[in-house]
Amino acid sequence: SHKLINRINILKTMKVIIALCLFGVVLSAPQGQRAVSQNHQMTPEEIEFLPEPYTFGHEVSDDETTNYQTRQESQDENGVVTGEYSWVAPNGIRYITRYRADKENGFVVDTQEEQTNIVVIIPEPIPEHQKQPLLRQQQI
Q1: How sure is the predictor about 30, in pLDDT bands with cuts at 50, 70 and 90?
Q2: pLDDT bracket for residue 136 (50, 70, 90)
Q3: Alpha-carbon 46 to chain mean position
Q4: I need a labelling partner for 20 at 20 to 30 A (CA). Which of 2, 9, 29, 121 fits?
Q5: Whole-angstrom distance, CA of residue 79 vs CA of residue 72
Q6: How far apart, in whole angstroms, are the C-alpha atoms of residue 7 and residue 15?
Q7: pLDDT per residue over 101-117, tens digit each?
C-alpha cells in the first residue's frame, strides 16, 4: 500500500510537470502585433508588412582568372528596392544591369554594354588522365 501511494504521488507530480511544460509552451508562442478575435482568420489584405531598410554589396576583381563582377542592392523604408550588378563576359564586354522595384512602377530594369580591354582567360579542361584525385580532410 505504501508503494501504491508513492506511485500515485509520482503520477500526480508528473501530470503537474507536464501541465506546467504545456503552459510554458503556450506562453512562449509568438504573439501577433495586434489583437485578433479567436474566431477571426486574417486575410492577406489585413496583414501589413512594413519594409525594413537594408543594403548589401560585393565585388570580385580577380586578374588571375579574369573574373570581374559586382553586385549592390538596397531597400529604403518605403520598400523601394534599387540595385545594380555587372560582369565581364567572355567577349570582353561588361554588362551592367540596373534595376528598381516599387509599388507604382513594378520591376524596371535596364542593361547596358560597356566595351573593355579585358581579355578573358578561358580555362582549358584538364584531360581525365591528368586529373589529381581529390584529397579528403581528415576529421579530428
Answers
A1: low
A2: low
A3: 25
A4: 2
A5: 16
A6: 12
A7: 999 999 999 999 999 99
Q: Look at phi and psi of residue 117 and say left if phi exceeds 0, alpha if psi is from -120 to 50, else beta.
A: alpha
Q: Which three cell numbers stand for residue 9?
A: 504521488
Amino acid at 50: L
- Calpha distance 81→101 (Å, rounded): 5
Helix, strand, coil fractions of the chain, as percent rounded to 5: 20, 35, 45
Strand 54-62's sheet: what is its strand order? 54-62, 67-75, 81-88, 93-102, 106-115
Amino acid in the structure at residue 53: P
C-alpha cell at 98: 540596373
> Which contiguous run of DSSP H or E holds residue 96?
strand 93-102
Rg (CA), the chain: 30
